[in-house]
UniProtKB/TrEMBL annotation:
This is Polyphosphate kinase. Residues 15-119 form the Polyphosphate kinase N-terminal domain. GO terms for cellular component: polyphosphate kinase complex. It comes from Maioricimonas rarisocia. InterPro entries: PP_kinase (IPR003414), PP_kinase_C_1 (IPR041108), PP_kinase_middle (IPR024953), PP_kinase_middle_dom_sf (IPR036830), PPK_C_dom2 (IPR025200), PPK_N_dom (IPR025198), PPK_N_dom_sf (IPR036832). The gene is ppk. Mg(2+) binds at residues 380, 410.
Amino acid sequence: MATASDMSSNSTSKYLNRELSWLEFNQRVLDEALDPAIPLLERLKFLAITASNLDEFFRVRVGGLQLMVRQGSTRRDPSGMTPQEQLDAIAARVRQMADDQYECYRNDLEPQLAEAGMQRIRPEELTGMQRDVVEHVFDSEIHAILTPMAVTSTGEFPLLPNQNLNVCVRLAPDRETPDEDRFAVIPFAPASSRFISLPAETGYAYLLLEDAVRQFAGRFFVGETILECVPFRITRNADVSVRDDSAADLLVEMEQVLDERRTANCVRLEIADDGSDELVGFLQEALEITETETMRMAGPLDLSAFFRLTDRQGFDHLKYDSWPAQPSPDCPPGASLFDVIALQDVLLYHPYESFEPVVRLIEEAAKDPDVLSIKQTLYRTSRSSPIVEALMRAAEMGKQVTAIVELKARFDEARNIEWARALEQAGAQVIYGVKGLKTHAKTCIIVRREPEGIQRYMHFGTGNYNESTARLYSDVSLMTRDEELGDDAVAFINAITGYSQPQQYRKIAAAPIGLRDAVLEMIASETERKKQGQEARIMAKVNALVDPELIDALYEASQAGVKIQLNIRGICCLKPGVEGLSENIEVVSIVDRFLEHARIMYFHHGGEGRVYISSADWMPRNLDRRAELLVPVEDPTSRQRMIHILETYFQDTVKARRLLPDGSHERIVPTDDPPFRAQQHLYEEAREAIKRAEQQRRTLFEPHRPGEE
């Protein structure tokens, strides 16, 4: 075990670096792509996810660090690293990761997929018939759509879209400049298909678009000598924020942010590794990119595009068996959800249990004549959101609909702007969040007139109101009409929509005022109880743990002897297992077929067992710069189920990795017990629950009442 004295004297050395911790998370995703026990197309999917993850990492995190370096910042982060030191460490780690990605693709996945009937064809491998097909596609589609742009100097380089595939063409000198090569750029159209289907006797064969352009590039430059034609791709900085505290019209300001991203500086150049030094140097000068910021790739650029191949029909044997979301036993088909929630709180754990009851609740509210108003937060929604459409119908039917649409949800700004305008047009009251904060809380309040008076029905969640991602992300939904939670939810919404000051809530805690203190208080309570000789325990499942103040509180609890189990999917800056500091803290991470997204917390609290769900991760941005919620789960059955789910993850010996003090992870070696996979176990439990409910319904005799048909 590491000891506190093993670390440097710098007080910040008790924290792991945030950026390097995130890269280790992406490595765990890559480990799934490297795992031969996983079906081939699922491995390809994980590989594509690692590439997509890195794209966002460069756009947001690396772009921000580069900006700090240009501004001359030498400020050290909590781990003790300057911005330049972080960039150097990131560059080294990313290069190793890229090597592993392409080693996996070239020498493992691509050959095995070809053997299984999904074959990538190189230009030199085309049969006569296949070449005819490619030539026809090029002449009828590609040549007509793509436009070559001559670049006479690096100062006249065209504005290229972020993360769009392009080719750079180097042409032989002409008579006027016999000593200088000439260059042209061909940007690919965003709507162009990356994969050109080819005739094949069996299976599926395809040629990459860039290979087709290379094959017939001469048709763009008739009479010219092409020296090389090389694919490349740029990543632009997306760390552009709006000063919404001074924005007169936030919607207009967000549209300007989107425009700024299109012209932001380049933070990464990816290029095929067969590009000459002359061509690479030309692009580096034109894009103002250094050698460190240039990545030569030993395979197809933009591996995230290969995600599209994973849904190809006819290859089900190369995919996981289907795990369809199960209906909740507590929400029978056809039953009014208002009647269901009036009887008891309903807790759903997605994606094992369907998100359908959440959608159904809002759709039912939209058409129910007794519903007076609906208030809802919207952060990330689907492209054709049934929830937003239900809110629009409710507004059109004369109900009071208030939608808090967070326009600052990164990379979903454009979609949220469209939904905000559509909701306003339907007659809803649309609020664009709070100045200076992002509204990340997930809640819906439905106010309904009933015989006994006005009732409020609430939904609280850890995930977005997005029925598409709810099939892929693990999240918790709590539906209740608890009176005090209703008071709190209304007060929270009113604090966002009006000028009312945040107040003391009865049961919930909200960021940026109160949530941090509530969590710190519960950690401190466990620490104090342990010092007094009582039993103390903390279990938590969050996506990221970065906040130094919370980490210090957990260190103090560990030193007092509190047993702490943390399930952190992504970034974790806490160092577990350090003697004298954190030897009582265990941190595991699970990467499996569903994305772990739920935030759940348990505190022993003298045996009472307090359980909470939250929209917030344990990061400064969530605790200090976002409107977030921490909601208690008080129904005994629901609370016990949450504890069971938390404990299930800590039993995993198949997909779990244990965090080590140096920031690396190790597989958990199973004991003599059979291998245990948490996600599979949770899915099987959901299936068994609905089977039991159906069996009970079949054996329940319900008499016909007079007047019933």
